[in-house]
Amino acid sequence: MGIPARRREVGGGVAAADMLSEKAAQMREALVKSQSITDNMVSILGSFDHRLSALETAMRPTQIRTHAIRRAHENIDKTLKAADVILSQFDLSRQAEAKILKGPHEDLESYLQAIDQLRNNIQFFSSNKSFKSSDGVLNHTNSLLTKAISKLEEEFRQLLLSYSKPVEPERLFECLPNSMRPSGSPGDSGGKIPSSNSHSDHQNNTTESSIYTTPTLIPPRILPLLHDLAQQMVQAGNKQQLQKIYRDARSSVLDESLRKLGVEKLSKEDVQKMQWDVLEAKIGNWIHFMRIAVKLLFAGERKVCDQIFEGFDPLMDQCFAEVTTGSVAVLLSFGDAIAKSKRSPEKLFVLLDMYEIMRELHSEIEALFRGKACNEIRESAQGLTKRLALTAKETFGDFEEAVEKDATKTSVADGTVHPLTSYVINYVKFLFDYQSTLKQLFQEFETGDDSNSQLAAVTMRIMQALQTNLDGKSKQYRDPSLTHLFLMNNIHYMVRSVRRSEAKDLLGDDWVQRHRRVVQQHANQYKRIAWAKILQCLSVQGLTSSGGGSSINADGGNSSGVSRAIIKDRLKTFNIQFEDLHQRQSQWTVPDTELRESLRLAVAEVMLPAYRSFIKRFGPLVENGKNPQKYIRFTPEDLEHMLGEFFEGKTLNEPKR
Asked: Which of 246, 397, 603, 615 is least crowded, fewest Cβ atoms below 10 Å from its Cβ?
């Protein structure tokens, strides 16, 4: 049993080995086949590579031809597109040319679009110089554009001229505040605005400055068209021609508007030859002309200029300056001629009026005439303001000196207020209507003092100069009592005028009180000198002895020893002196009613009681004698009545002096 079993185990191992061997043989066979296949594939692939290289070599000429054909097609497409663009430019150019040849008058908007198209064409062909005919096209288009701009200039000129008309005075007056418009029908004014009656009227008018209405010089619908035309001309480089056209059209219209208003071109020589009343009226008109020119006409011109040249600021200012320069020069030259003319006191107030209007218009002039181009105009206006201020200041000084040195022989025989006094006081009162102007004027020449104190100092100097002159004039009188009456009248007039005016606030109560005392001193001096002698006639001194009786003796005396002859002589002298005083002093004048009554009362309070006492005590000596009425000619009532006739200036007979 054991052996067969082992044999079976050995037999089984051999079989397994055979199977492995068989499988190994199969694997070798498969590897050999695989290697053979691989070699075959390598051989095949090598063959393919060779064939592909040969094919590529064979196809290369075809590829080159295909690429060339493709590039040719692309170039043809590009050329066709470029040709289409060029053809469209030609088409647009033909359309633009047709519009240009038709002109701008019928359809300005289309005309301007055509000009823009021409510019686009020029830009296109300038950047496409490779186009064979580009130079010819550019020459043609540039020539056409030049003609187009030329027509545009003419259209701008015609449009501007057709709507540029002078402004009639009546239309300007409608733009003024109501209080400054001429009264009556427009024809009555004759193109002139009536002057205000007083400086205060003007001050009231200035509060209405907001009511000025800028006139419409060119219809609003036309301004955008003019702006578009101007813009095209600027772009075409025709700025200078544009300025000339605008200046010529608008400046002549502005000049004519001012001429119709009444503005004249006057030289310094013309001004110097004029009578004062004529010149004064022209100065009043000039003040109104300046206000109308700046607030209405120049403001209107600036508005038009700004809209037409919007976007071109330097050109805007330059055109405005060129349009207005001539008109401004005419207006300022008149003011300059006044400022440089011979100074005289009566010119001070018109100089202040002129200075005042220049100050009033200063901010508007600065705003309207802005920019570098208007520098000269602004400087001219400012220069005139300073010259007017300087001339007014010098005239002020001249007046003070003239008052002190006035040597006019105009006499007031009746001792009333001298014409110089009323003239100076009225002058000073008028000055106070110009307080704010004078303060501004003093500030032009700053000295460090307050402008109020400067005005007060100047006023006091003028009043002192007047008093000094009056003292000199009072010495012309031979009668010392008339000297004091004259000074009393004149200084009282000064005091009363100051008390009733704004000068009181500036000069102060102290000045008023001091000069009232001066008036009283002269009144007292008058009484003392004029009445002392006649009152001596009524004095008892030298008439009575130490006795106290009053019975009349046979020798014509009385118990007190008074001589009838002396009494008669005293009464006779009194009558002569009083009649003389009455004759002379009834021709003298005290113009102020209150002062006149006060002076009469002061005389009566001294003389009438003395006369009554004298007649009562010594009258019987005369009444009991012959012809008593020859000596007692006046009752106290007669004297009182006659005193009421003093200082009335009743007769025109030449009085003794």
From this structure: 397
